[in-house]
Amino acid sequence: MFVMAAICSKIEHGEIKRIDGMSSGNFSSLRFRYIYIFLLSVVGTSSPVDVEWALNLPTFFGNVAYLQCNISDTASNCANKDRRWIGGPQYDGLCYENECPISKKYKVMNHPRCSYILMIYNFSESDVNCEYTCFYGASKNRRNLTLDEKNFIYEPGIEDIKEETIEKDNTFNRKITIRKIYPKPSCVAYLNMEKKPHHLQVSITKPGFYYTADLQIKLPLSSCGKLDVNCYLGDHKINITNKNFDSCQFKGLLTLLITTN
Question: 213: domain range?
Fold first, then answer.
């Protein structure tokens, strides 16, 4: 475009001379025809730039989330450095090119070349259900980062699980409280790798953003082997507890009673 402007300027100021024998009217017509053809050659050969971002899935609360902005710029091979991210709970400017000055919560990557990836550290509930915009020059993609129970996971840590054990009436009682988990869990108990679906019930509540779960496991003191309780968060499996009963000093069967709402 700068070349075209320079040529037009030269024509206007007479720096490009008329062809001998050509009248002023014909030269003027040729001049504007030339400019028109030059415009078509410049604009017609430029490719539109598509920009679209997506969240890398699944995403774990408490970890780093990656918003990958993909740039389709075949004309300049993604050489434009004018890249920006705007968004978050307050819809602020987050990053410009390689700098994210407002918070240590955000960083960016430019690799591969036609990507501009926003990294959100300590990803939390405040980072979802708000809009983010990726800019590449004049092109942009603005979308809402919408929470769902398929692609977002909070895996409870040790500090989120409380276990209590009581022996009473020849019964081994194990109570497990999971105070923070997401999405709604589906839990299964196994004894010696044998599934016990009919003996497992789960009490789940949702006091706020996250779910809580209460499990009460009752075993006869005659139980023998290894007990596992796993919970599934969508397709993601986590082990909540495992217990080995090695002495086998009593004989009997395992029963699991988990209070439910």
Answer: 157-245
Residue 258 lies in a domain: no
Alpha-carbon distances, residue 51 vs 23, 24, 114, 149 (angstroms): 49, 47, 10, 27
DSSP strands (E only) in the chain:
50-55, 59-60, 65-72, 83-87, 92-96, 106-109, 115-120, 130-136, 139-145, 152-153, 161-168, 171-181, 186-191, 194-195, 203-205, 211-220, 225-233, 236-245
Cβ atoms of 42 and 34 closer than 8 Å: no
**Residue 239 domain flag:** yes
The reply to whether 23 and 115 lie within a common domain is no
Are 137 and 161 in the same domain? no
DSSP annotation of 90 reads T
For residues 72 and 114, give the distance between their C-alpha atoms in angstroms, rounded to a whole number. Answer: 7
Coarse DSSP helix, strand, coil percentages of the chain, rounded to the nearest 5 percent: 15, 45, 40
pLDDT tens digits for 16-35? 444 344 444 443 333 333 33
Residues 146 and 113 in one domain: yes
As for how many domains the chain has, the answer is 3
Residue 17: per-residue pLDDT: 41
Per-residue model confidence (pLDDT) at position 47: 59
